[in-house]
Prior knowledge:
Arc Repressor Mutant, subunit A, mainly alpha, 50% helix, Rossmann fold, disordered C terminus, single chain
Amino acid sequence: MSDQNLFREGVVQLLHSQGFQSVSEYRSAAECLSALGDTAPQLVLVDMDHTSDDPFLLLRDLRSRAARFMVVIIGTAQQVGAANGTADGALEMSEANAQVLRAVVGLTQMAEQPSAMPPPSPEAQHQRQQWSLLTPRQRDVLGFLATGSDNLKIAANLGISERAVKAHVSALLSRFNAENRTELAVLACRAGLRPPHRSVPRKPEPRAQVG
């Protein structure tokens, strides 16, 4: 699945040229999940550099399916690290290039032999270790930082206090050895993070009645 037409079409054409008969392509998570309700593919490729959908939500949805199939993500070392083991394998890339496309050819064989999947790079392993230590709430905060939200807005959307947001930001600065929240925002953007799909507006605190 990818919303980048040239990259998606290149992968499909490459697989067809290698003799793969049944190859489907999808531009959105909705299309992909809908099709999976009718078919049981051997392999699902997910482009983590997706602009219209949250690929992390798609990975969670794929993992919740009863049918078992191999899920492989394509992305940068940061994106692979942020996925933190939610996929069976990963192809690292800094851009869509011929080398990565050629690597796709062997994926179906790897689906039958998962141990044949190439190991992640040292950078991806480091990123995965870093991201695995984050709490779900810290990931939520990072998602909002990627959009430039201030602490007050993050607190309102997550239903927590502004003080709690400040504590999470401080922990994130320490975890990623970042100088400021701008660096955290850049890091979150590069990893592909977005605000949580469902954010709960904070309920206003009751006012004391004076009689």
